[in-house]
Specification:
Distance between the termini: 45 Å
Order of helices and strands: HHEEHEHHHHHHEEH
Protein name: Thioredoxin domain-containing protein
Shape: globular
Family: Belongs to the thioredoxin family. DsbA subfamily.
Number of domains: 1
CATH topology: Glutaredoxin
Helix content: 40-55%
Strand content: 5-15%
Number of strands: 5
Function: May be required for disulfide bond formation in some proteins.
CATH class: Alpha Beta
Largest sheet: 5 strands, mixed
Keywords: Signal
InterPro entries: Thioredoxin-like_fold, Thioredoxin-like_sf, Thioredoxin_domain
CATH architecture: 3-Layer(aba) Sandwich
Mean pLDDT: 88
Length: about 210
């Protein structure tokens, strides 16, 4: 395992036992009005969904082992994609924010298929989160590899990706960008610069998008 991944694993070790808690629900109008000076900006290495000229840009910071993130991915995001991203009103940027060593490896694996498969792997990883999150990281990687194999990425490719400094650095850079923006729980969203935290049903999340439109 290469140096970057070892450093990242060491930095997340203290968080390995931490459980990510959903933040208390906030009033949508107040959230929409709260601007964060350190809000993230698009980078060349971001994997973006939606039109480049969409009036709303959403950054999502999430951890693949976070149950609340899985709830958002499976319950809320499909409607957001249909009504807002596919309609040209939102461009969506997912930023890796792993909270533990298993999540770190999972995020690297999600990038293993390249940009075209990234969001597809995220969807399946969240949908099957209970099946691959194990106490043993090696068992988690093996379970993830069985999923990616269906998507055309072999176990050998997964192992190569985990040893790839470029992918490790990408995930760590995404995590650090969240730290710089004040992210301390997942999921966290920046909607045209306005910060919102915690899982939200579609009706509530839609109000935040409407306020930014």
């Amino acid at each position: 395992m290469h140096r970057i991944l070892l450093i990242a694993l060491a930095s997340f070790a203290a968080l390995a036992q931490a459980e990510v808690q959903a933040a208390p629900a906030a009033d949508p109008a107040q959230v929409a009005a709260t601007q964060l000076a350190a809000a993230p900006e698009i980078r060349p290495d971001d994997v973006v969904l939606g039109k480049a000229d969409a009036p709303i840009t959403v950054f999502e910071y999430a951890s693949l082992t976070c149950p609340h993130c899985a709830d958002f991915s499976t319950k809320t995001f499909p409607e957001v994609k249909k009504d807002w991203i596919d309609a040209g009103k939102v461009r969506w940027v997912y930023r890796d924010f792993p909270f533990d060593p298993i999540a770190l490896k999972a995020h690297i694996v999600a990038h293993c298929g390249g940009p075209d498969r990234f969001y597809g792997f995220l969807d399946v990883f969240y949908e099957q989160q209970r099946n691959w999150v194990k106490s043993n990281p090696d068992e988690s990687v093996a379970a993830l590899a069985s999923i990616t194999k269906i998507g055309g990425v072999s176990e050998a490719q997964v192992k190569a990706c985990l040893a790839d400094d470029k992918l490790s650095k990408l995930v760590v850079t995404n995590r650090q960008s969240g730290d710089n923006a004040g992210v301390d729980s997942t999921p966290t969203f920046f909607i045209n610069g306005s910060k919102s935290t915690g899982f939200k049903e579609y009706a509530e999340f839609q109000k935040l998008l409407e306020a930014a439109h």
